[in-house]
Amino acid sequence: MEFERRCWAEVDLGALRHNFRLIRRAAGEAAVMAVVKADAYGHGDVAVANLLDEEGAEWFAVSGFEEAVRLRRSGLAKPILILGYTSPENAPSLAVNDITQTVFSPEYAKALSDAAARAAVTVRVHLKVDTGMGRIGFSAVDDPDGAAAQMEAVYRLPGLRVTGIFTHFAAADSEEEADKDYTRRQYALLEETAARLAAAGRDTGLVHCCNSAGTVAWPAFHRDLVRPGIILYGHDPSGDVHLP
């Protein structure tokens, strides 16, 4: 027990501030959504978010509902996006706390809509497009028309307000030509999906795709905002991509 009391983690907030300023410069005109999921990668989400808020981060991203609520209760007023699943029963709290929720399937959209409608609230949502990462999202890989149609239907659901669409790059941290082509294809699928929604008369809101590697290595793909995560905390995305 004596040994445990002498253990601590020292986080250099000056280094964090330095990293964010490099990212802010690399982002150019795009807004910065600071990823503070998993307790800011173990660095302390409230302390990290407060500093990045002071530095001018426009958005924050977390993994789940409890993380988002904790940041709101700490006094953070900037927009927050939940990247993962939130139980539909939390729709009223999402609305009250002005937290944006990722929607990734027709079934989840319907469940969240039903809960929001019952509570007479409106939840802001960003639509996740699976362009090849293979996790969650409306799959635009095999059926881009079908994915766009499913996403367009979300706009018609009561209790939901679509304010953005996004995807996640699978190999943006690689210099291999095959991986570069894969990243270009992912971006093209996102662009095509956005164009289909626009053609249907839908406002896509914020369009974003660049993770840490994309922020550094693919400036042409920054779109409306970038989502730096690991590079905030002093680690390069890979041996091929480095924060300048």
How does the SSE layout of this entry go?
Blueprint: H1 2-5, H2 13-27, E1 31-35, H3 37-42, H4 45-55, E2 59-62, H5 65-73, E3 80-82, H6 91-96, E4 99-103, H7 106-118, E5 123-130, E6 138-139, H8 144-154, E7 160-166, H9 177-199, E8 206-210, H10 212-217, E9 225-226
Parallel strand pairs: 1-2, 1-9, 2-3, 3-4, 4-5, 5-6, 5-7, 7-8, 8-9
Compact description:
By secondary structure, the chain is α/β, with parallel strands linked by helices. It is built from ten helices and nine strands.
Protein architecture, described:
The protein is α/β, with parallel strands linked by helices and about 240 residues long. About 45% of the residues lie in helices and about 15% in strands. The protein is built from 10 helices and 9 strands. The chain has helices spanning about 1-5, 15-25, 35-40, 45-55, 65-75, 90-95, 105-120, 145-155, 175-200, 210-215; strands spanning about 30-35, 60, 80, 100-105, 125-130, 140, 160-165, 205-210, 225. It has an 8-stranded parallel barrel, surrounded by 5 helices. β2, α5 (about 65-75) and β3 (about 80) form a beta-alpha-beta unit. α2 (about 15-25) crosses α4 (about 45-55) and α8 (about 145-155) packs across α9 (about 175-200). The chain starts with a helix and ends in an 18-residue tail after the last strand.
Q: Which structural class should the secondary elements be placed in?
A: alpha/beta
Oligomeric grouping of the chains:
single chain
Rg calculated over all Cα atoms:
18 Å
Compute the separation of the termini in Å. 42 Å
Low-pLDDT sequence parts: none
Strand % is 15-25%
* Topology pattern, helix = H, strand = E: HHEHHEHEHEHEEHEHEHE
Mean pLDDT: 95
Helix content: 40-55%
What is the number of E strands? 9
Enumerate how many helices there are, as a single number: 10
**Based on CA inertia axes, which overall geometry fits?**
globular
Strand order of the largest sheet: 1-2-3-4-5-7-8-9
Major sheet details: 8 strands, parallel, barrel
